[in-house]
Amino acid sequence: xxxxxxxxxxxxxxxxxxxxxxxxxxxxxxxxxxxxxxxxxxxxxxxxxxxxxxxxxxxxxxxxxxxxxxxxxxxxxxxxxxxxxxxxxxxxxxxxxxxxxxxxxxxxxxxxxxxxxxxxxxxxxxxxxxxxxxxxxxxxxxxxxxxxxxxxxxxxxxxxxxxxxxxxxxxxxxxxxxxxxxxxxxxxxxxxxxxxxxxxxxxxxxxxxxxxxxxxxxxxxxxxxxxxxxxxxxxxxxxxxxxxxxxxxxxxxxxxxxxxxxxxxxxxxxxxxxxxxxxxxxxxxxxxxxxxxxxxxxxxxxxxxxxxxxxxxxxxxxxxxxxxxxxxxxxxxxxxxxxxxxxxxxxxxxxxxxxxxxxxxxxxxxxxxxxxxxxxxxxxxxxxxxxxxxxxxxxxxxxxxxxxxxxxxxxxxxxxxxxxxxxxxxxxxxxxxxxxxxxxxxxxxxxxxxxxxxxxxxxxxxxxxxxxxxxxxxxx
Length: 476
Ligand SMILES: Cc1ncc(COP(=O)(O)O)c(C=O)c1O
Hints:
- This protein is α/β, with parallel strands linked by helices.
- The chain has 13 helices and 11 strands.
- It has 2 domains: 12-53 and 67-92 and 363-476, Aspartate Aminotransferase, domain 1; 107-346, Type I PLP-dependent aspartate aminotransferase-like (Major domain) (Aspartate Aminotransferase, domain 2, 3-Layer(aba) Sandwich), CATH 3.40.640.
- Helix 11 (349-384) packs across helix 13.
């Protein structure tokens, strides 16, 4: 590191800040420059075990540890061939806006001390406009789709309480009569049903359509008809995390209306489909009571940044506002701390606000469209491969595949799929996730990084072919 660090007086911010900016800017630049050479995932990472150092160590030594022990073992998750989960990689604008978030160190709990809360409100408004959602949707930024699903579950629960004349937020869930209907909810949705006291097992499982994870409407209607619960909640998907299937939200919202059920839609990444498809696969989402959206997925802003939207902000305020002498939030002008989980909140709206300003709908749609094309190209190459087979048509940005196997029972095939998947991830050229498709282990590649290119698909195919050869050839 070119900067002289030994004389750095960290207790004097004015004096140390210029040097620190140089040091951290250099680390940032080196990391981004070297991204292509770094293994996409570090599957064997290990941090040396060590006890807490009471007196601390000089900054220069701490930096050395960071550079020796931590940075070399980080993944290239911001890069173009990290295809696990559904992650974006921060764009340059979002990266440095996020750097400013930390520099500015604002607390967006109440809006009384700065304009920052208004920036969050404006970013939410712009997101709604970009996704063609009506202005009746209000919301807030969260730490991610799980936190947004939690707010969805909580609000649905309290809506049901209101239907039954109960104040669940104050009196608890014990006398609540409620059933939740869903076909293929994301695992985070189950987690949050547990967190809000309804229980992970409260779901009435709705059948799916053939060869799809989308809800069968006939079964949904039948189950709602048979339900004795006083209140009902429907959890729909746009899109499901494995097969990227969209529930028929127009029809489901009509059914929800008919049964006076709350409709929550998990559109964590599927919402972005609205930027490129006509007609929209998520048509009808505008009738949902609440929606989950994730910006650290396809908007390509850094973690952690989700969004929760609802047409019932007053109910959210009723559930989450806790009056205190030093707070003066009102239902007409609610502070974010009265609408969300946390009291103290990060200025995570800034990277979203700047991304929307700089890239606009057109710029964002370009990378969404390109990701979808790349996923289809990759799926096509898998279909033509002698070593692998496609498990499901690629409809959006996710490709599901397994090794092609002859004469193996299902259990052996699953074991092989897991071994091949581990080998692919250890190779370091791409990173893929585990998935289950119709009871079978599969390999799942999700395209949501703004930088992914055709060359990355070619590199991936080369890696897959070499892995297949290691496992013994043509059909594995
Ligand atoms: C549909 C869906 N919902 C929820 C989540 C959870 O998102 P997060 O990790 O941001 O909490 C994911 C993550 O992949 C998802 O795809």
